[in-house]
Amino acid sequence: MVPVNHYPKIQKLMLLGCGKMGSALLSRWLSDGLGPDAVSVIEPCPSNWLKDQNVTINGEIGSPPSVCVIAVKPQVMDNALPAVSQFGNGPTLFISIAAGKRIDFFEKELGPRTPIIRSMPNTPASIGQGITAVTRNSRASDDHVAVAKSLLSAVGETVELPDEALLDAVTAVSGSGPAYAFLLIETLTAAGVEQGLTRETAEKLAIATVAGAGRLAKSGQGTPAFLRESVTSPGGTTAAALKILMDGETGLQPLMSRAVEAAAERSRELGG
């Protein structure tokens, strides 16, 4: 049975770079009904998986694509982008998922009349559980944003930002955020081992607890604060732990604030 095409406005899509994130996106697009004949990929080292998808790989580009998704690493951008620069200042919508490359960089390379959307996905997108923030330049219309959101929502949720400068905060919260969650699992595991659990048991408990709490937070059964309070009995075990974690000077809030501030500042530095 042929899947319903969720992208009827996209007659031709070009994907510049098909690494881990590009492959995750392409896999979802094809599953959602985008025809392989509508996809062209520029990838110098195509994987065996990509070769099996029946899309055009490193072929003649021909007419301008409806959308060009830029999914190459920032360090190879200068060498890769010229392959699609001919479509700048035209009808092609450019969507970048490359970290650190700002809109003015793409306007300089592609032309000031080019509709450009810059996005920041995170690594859970590789399993369809990501969240991606998007922001646009002045040439990108509401329809362009709708197309970008439809493509990027294939790997998770999307949010639109009114100002590109906010992407530094997004980078610090959701872009780098999975590492914070993994560190929480590591530290919770280590604390369980200190209390006598085997590492295997402690890690299994920590992973399931963090994953389950995340799903519960997304379930709509209450705000994170409400859910926290609902499992905190006065004078109980959770209250004893939260007294440490919620200390105004040494607790998790001031620690996380400093960590996110450091990540946001580094993002600003890298973006020039």
Task: Give me the secondary-structure topology.
Elements: E1 13-16, H1 20-31, E2 39-42, H2 48-51, E3 56-57, E4 67-70, H3 77-80, E5 93-96, H4 103-110, E6 116-120, E7 130-136, H5 142-152, E8 156-160, H6 167-175, H7 177-194, H8 199-218, H9 224-230, H10 237-245, H11 252-271
Parallel strand pairs: 1-2, 1-4, 2-3, 4-5, 5-6, 7-8
Antiparallel strand pairs: 6-7
Compressed to H and E, one letter per element, the order equals EHEHEEHEHEEHEHHHHHH
Q: Which secondary-structure class do the elements indicate?
A: alpha/beta
Biggest sheet statistics: 8 strands, mixed
The 3D shape can be described as: elongated
Beta-sheet strand percentage? 5-15%
Helix content: 40-55%
- N-to-C terminal Cα separation, in Å? 49 Å
State mean pLDDT (0 to 100 scale).
95
Explain how this protein is built:
It is a single chain. The chain has 272 residues and is α/β, with parallel strands linked by helices. The chain is built from eleven helices and eight strands. Helix 1 links the parallel strand 1 (13-16) and strand 2 (39-42). Helix 6 (167-175) packs across helix 11 (252-271) and helix 7 (177-194) packs across helix 8.
